[in-house]
Design brief:
Length: 271
C-alpha cells in the first residue's frame, strides 16, 4: 500500500527534515507517527500526500511512485489519499455540505454523485442535521468532523491525519479518534502524526517513532514513549475496554447500524 525507500528531504540545501526513511505500511494498517516537534512527522505526511517531493529516494503509494510524479498527475493521487489537518482548513464562505461536496466536485464527480454521497458521509460523522451550517457556527470538534468527512467522502484507500486532535480538548479528541478507528475498520489505511500520548497509549496500534528525521522505533502494538514501567491499558480487537478507554472502542457500522463499506458508486480514482 505504502512503501518508502531511502527517502530524504532537504530544505534550503542544508536543513534535513527526514533522512534515509525506509517504511512499509500495508493495506488496512493504522499507524501512529510520533516524536518531538521537528522530528519529521509532518514532513513525512506531506511527502505521502505529494505536497513535497523527496530530495532522494522513492515513495510508492498504491503501487505508483509519487516522488517523480508530474504535477498534472497529483489530482489523481489525491483521489487515493485523503488528508485531515490540525487546523481543519475549511472554506469559511461555504456550508458544511458545500465544503464536503467541493472535495468531489474538484475531481470531476457529477452532481448526482455529490448529492448521493455527501449526506451519507455527514451521517457517518454524526452531522446529518448540520449540512447547512457554516464553519463559524460549529464547535472545534464538529469542524474536525467535517474535515474528516471531506477527506473520506471519496472513499480513499489511505487517510493521512496530521495532528488531527492538536486543537481539541481530550473528550472531543476521543470522538475524533473513534471516528478514525471506525474508518480504519472498513479497510482504509490510516497514518496519523500526533503528540497525544494518551490516545496512542490507549489504542495500542502500530507506532513509528521519528527523531531528528530518522525512524528510531517501529512497534506493532506500541505506546508513545516505548517501553514503560507502568502497564498501559490496551484496546482489544473485540473493542471491549475498561472505563478509561471505552470511548475509543469502535464498531463497524453507521449510527443507524448499517455496516460501513468501502464499496460505493464513487470511483476510487486509481487512474
Amino acid at each position: 500500500m505504502i512503501e518508502v525507500k531511502g527517502a530524504t528531504k532537504i530544505y534550503d540545501k542544508t536543513t534535513v527534515a527526514v533522512r534515509d526513511i525506509d517504511l512499509k505500511i500495508n493495506k488496512g494498517d493504522f499507524v501512529f507517527l510520533v516524536g518531538p516537534s521537528g522530528s519529521g512527522k509532518s514532513t513525512l505526511i506531506r511527502l505521502l500526500m505529494r505536497e513535497e517531493r523527496p530530495t532522494e529516494g522513492e515513495i510508492y503509494v498504491a503501487g505508483k511512485e509519487i516522488g517523480g510524479m508530474p504535477d498534472s498527475k497529483v489530482p489523481f493521487h489525491r483521489r487515493v489519499v485523503g488528508t485531515v489537518f490540525q487546523d481543519f482548513k475549511l472554506l469559511p464562505n461555504k456550508t458544511v455540505f458545500e465544503n464536503i461536496a467541493f472535495a468531489l466536485e474538484v475531481i470531476g464527480h457529477p452532481r448526482h454523485v455529490v448529492e448521493s454521497q455527501v449526506p451519507k458521509v455527514l451521517k457517518l460523522v454524526g452531522l446529518a442535521s448540520k449540512g447547512d451550517r457554516y464553519p463559524r457556527q460549529l464547535s472545534g470538534g464538529e469542524q474536525q468532523r467535517v474535515s474528516v468527512a471531506r477527506a473520506f467522502v471519496n472513499r480513499p484507500l489511505i487517510l493521512l491525519a496530521d495532528e488531527p486532535t492538536g486543537n481539541l480538548d481530550p473528550a472531543t479528541s476521543v470522538g475524533i479518534m473513534r471516528l478514525l478507528d471506525r474508518i480504519n475498520r472498513t479497510g482504509t489505511t490510516v497514518v496519523m502524526a500526533t503528540h497525544d500520548h494518551a490516545i496512542v497509549d490507549a489504542m495500542r496500534r502500530r507506532v513509528v517513532e521519528l527523531e531528528r528525521g530518522r525512524i528510531v522505533r517501529d512497534d506493532s502494538r506500541g505506546v508513545y514513549e516505548g517501553l514503560r514501567t507502568m502497564e498501559v491499558p490496551a484496546v482489544p480487537a473485540n473493542g471491549q475496554t475498561d472505563a478509561s478507554t471505552s470511548e475509543l472502542a469502535a464498531d463497524e457500522s453507521l449510527p443507524d447500524g448499517t455496516p460501513m463499506s468501502l464499496e460505493s458508486d464513487i470511483g476510487m480514482g486509481n487512474a
